[in-house]
Amino acid sequence: MQSYSFTTQEVLDTLSEGGVKPSAQRMAILRFLMENRVHPTVDEIFKALQPENPTLSRTTVYNTLRLLTEAEIIRCIETGVNGARWDYSQHDHAHFLCTECGRVTDVAFTMPSSLPLPESGYQVKSADVIFRGTCPLCAG
Fold this sequence. Notes:
CATH topology of the largest domain: Arc Repressor Mutant, subunit A
CATH architecture of the largest domain: Orthogonal Bundle
Number of domains: 2
CATH class of the largest domain: Mainly Alpha
Pfam families: FUR
Helix content: 25-40%
Cofactor: Zn(2+)
Mean pLDDT: 90
Number of strands: 5
Protein name: Transcriptional repressor
Distance between the termini: 19 Å
Binding site for Zn(2+): 98, 101, 135, 138
Strand order of the largest sheet: 4-3-5
Low-confidence stretches: none
Family: Belongs to the Fur family.
């Protein structure tokens, strides 16, 4: 897995570009997502950050994730199993959900230039593609 590292200024700039007022907890949550591209759940984020942020609550994590999603800084991945996952990525891609272990991984994917929509007038702003199956670790 590729390792990522971001400076405090880069985290601040990302929040600023999204119009989000920085706080220590928002910065910690965003930095975690920027540096850990494992598509974590709310509980995984909370458990990872709580030891160094003892005043952090699950409610703050939920609210921050909602705020960052609305600002289009992160994406929510609704897998239908084990709760929502969260993704920070600056490039378009799809996801692969292993139906055995629940792991979510990025998959290179280019959205087609035209989509078959039933009627005219639709204006697509985003699309989420999730492939489901068995990952190499579970298949092997």
